[in-house]
Amino acid sequence: MRTPVFELHIRPMFRATDRDHMISSVDLWDYDAVAAQADDILTRLENGMPPVSHGGPWPEEWIDLFRRWKDGARKRLELGTAAYTFNQTTIAVTIAAAGTFPAAGCKGWLQLDSETDTAKTYGLYVERPDAPVSGTPSTFNLKERYRATDTRSVFVRDASGVQQLH
Fold first, then answer.
1. Which of 53, 63, 133, 157 has a CA between 20 and 30 Å from the CA of residue 2?
2. Residue pair 125/108 in contact by the 8 Å Cβ criterion
3. pTM, entire model
């Protein structure tokens, strides 16, 4: 069974209404806050929170997944580092990230994290394997494409900060 990852499995279960209801005591979209208060959050979930007036209780399988994450490694994604390129043709825009994973067995991807009327921000995410893998870290060349008619500014957030590509 796969180890739950905060950004992939836990964070998406916290609905906007859950976050709004709890923001005065814990930001449910913040890994550090959730990890620090995981025992209290699980107790509330097991006792029927959130109430029906605030979105209703979580399904039992969501609570079980949260419990597995809390009782396990409380795994999360890392931000990677790479060299980036931005290429625009008449058909498409391609952003590419080239680099080397931090350890053998890692997986990675570029993901659109947010967009506004004027900008798109991607994240470069790395997931380490559940158990260390022997060997040399592999290199990667990750790409994302979108329509050339989209002329917004493009940013990438990685371990070194936020970089503007276009």
1. 157
2. yes
3. 0.84
Cα(73)–Cα(15) distance, rounded to whole angstroms? Answer: 23
Given a cut of 70, the residues of the chain with pLDDT beneath it are none
Which token pair is 26? 């814990």
What pLDDT digit, counting tens, does each position of 94-115 carry? Answer: 999 999 999 999 999 999 999 9
**Looking at residue 9, what is its pLDDT?**
96
The residues facing 154 across adjacent strands are: 120
The per-residue pLDDT of the chain, averaged, comes to 94
83-88 β-sheet, strand order? 83-88, 92-100, 139-147
Distances (CA, A) of 114 to 48, 118, 150: 32, 11, 15
> Quick check: 33 and 74 in contact, CB under 8 A?
no
- The H helix count followed by the E strand count for the chain is 4, 8
- Residue 20's Cβ-side half-sphere holds a number of Cα atoms within 13 Å equal to 6
Cα–Cα dist 44/125, whole Å: 31
Place of tokens 């004027």: 118
